[in-house]
Amino acid sequence: MVWSSGFGAGYFPFASGTFGTAAAMPLAWALSLVRPWWGWALAVAAYTAVSVAAAHRAGRLHGVVDSKRIVSDEFAGLFLTVGLLPFTWQTAVAGFFVFRLFDVVKPWPASFFDRKVHNGFGVTFDDVIAGVYARIVLEVLSRLGWLGAMPDDGVGALLSRLLSS
Predict the structure, then answer these.
(1) Of the candidates 99, 96, 87, which has an alpha carbon nearest to the alpha carbon of residue 149?
(2) pLDDT surpasses 60 at 15
(3) Among residues 87, 80, 64, which one has the least CA distance to residue 125?
């Protein structure tokens, strides 16, 4: 229950997804320090796998598959949103708002996971997909120089090399 609630953030009396996303930011910053990129990817994959199991168990205990108290999925989505970008205040603010937008709007296939997959996987992966969409937006903002710094390794460096050749 501690994990699925985002270490208690899910118990905030209103807007638990928003507060869960805010609570995830310090951990997202800590993950931004993990090098090389595959170390970050392993950490996020492990976190997401544990979140699937924790969300499934918490949903059963709360009697609601996607209980408002479950916010570990917001953590996973935010990690994907800001991961491997230089962690500037602009990245944090844009990542927060763009992720929340996609998490609320739930474009396909996030909406599929939200409406049709009634277990911990569905609870978590609608946010993972929202995080991927938000990450695409942040990558564009980063390439335009709007996030304060250009990526210097990982996905950013790979994309830079591909685009410059």
Answers:
(1) 87
(2) yes
(3) 80
Q: Which residues of 86-115 are buried (b: 16+ CB within 10 A; e: fewer)?
A: bbeebbbebbbebbbebbeebeeebeebbe
| CB 55, CB 120: distance < 8 Å | yes
Residue 103 has pLDDT above 60, yes or no: yes
Q: How far apart are CA 54 and CA 62, in angstroms?
A: 12
33: CB partners within 8 A, 6+ apart = none
The CA-based angle 122-59-18, given to 5 degrees, is: 70
Q: What is the pLDDT at residue 123?
A: 84
Domain that holds residue 108: 15-156
- Average pLDDT on 31-48 reads 93
Among 126, 130, 144, CA closest to 85: 144
Mean pLDDT of 37-51: 94
State both tokens at 143: 């390439």
In a domain, 5, yes or no: no
Neighbours of 49 (CB within 10 A): 12
Q: Tell me, yes or no, whether 135 lies in a domain.
A: yes
